[in-house]
Amino acid sequence: MGLRDILTGRHEVKGPAPDRLFAISTAYITLESEHQIEPVGTAAIVFQALATSEFEATLREMEEVVTATGGESGTKVSTEDDSYGYRWMVLHNPDGAPSVEDLAVGINAVSSSIETAGYGERLLCAVFAFKDAQARRIYFIYNYKRGFWYPFVPAGGGDSTQAQERSTERELQIKAQMASELPIEPELERWFPLWGIPI
User: Fold this and answer.
1) What is the largest distance, in Å, between two alpha-carbon atoms of the chain?
2) Phi, psi torsion values for 97, nearest 5 degrees
């Protein structure tokens, strides 16, 4: 059973919890000020696409909504499909102007549109990219099925497309630092790695 099989399984489905998603829009202040972990200015929502005209129309509408929502801040939207058949809708803040709040609003707009269209079960997760003082990537992943966040830190200081090793020690350190700020997934075996994150 693969990661995506587990994440998209029918186990303890909670459904999206917008208030929990928006916890990142305040938690990042603590990340920056106390732990020198800064937002990169990108986030993504991952979902299982359907090859139907209705679903594609929903996606086009979502892109328009996000573009309109991020119009003042200059947030851009792009999409790509991965080798597992999942679609990544990626939101990019303008260079040098990361806004976790804008990204969270955009991600929530997309997940709400997918839910309203009746495809809520196709949502996988949201991913927000950060970097530490040594410019190592740290990802915060929100699992829609569980309604919890967890950190994912690829080892080696690079991005998640390199060798598939993770820094579990660093992830646990971040959990201890942020447990009061974010609803962290309590079951560590559900801290699934996502390799090849395009943000």
Assistant:
1) 47
2) -135, 60
Q: Which domain holds residue 63?
A: 3-190
Pair 141, 176: CB distance under 8 Å: no
Q: What is the CATH number of the domain that holds 22?
A: 3.30.70.1130
Distance between CA 31 and CA 75 in Å, rounded? 22
Q: 150 near 184, Cβ under 8 Å?
A: yes
Token output for 157? 């200081």
User: What pTM was estimated for this model as a whole?
Assistant: 0.85
Q: Is residue 27 part of a domain?
A: yes
The answer to the question of residue 199 being in a domain is no
Give residue 37's pLDDT.
95
Decide if 37 is inside a domain.
Answer: yes
Domains of the chain: total = 1
Q: How far is CA 62 from CA 59, 65, 85, 99, 174, in A?
A: 5, 5, 19, 20, 32
pLDDT tens, position by position, 48-60: 988 888 888 888 8
102: left (phi over 0), alpha (psi -120 to 50) or beta: alpha
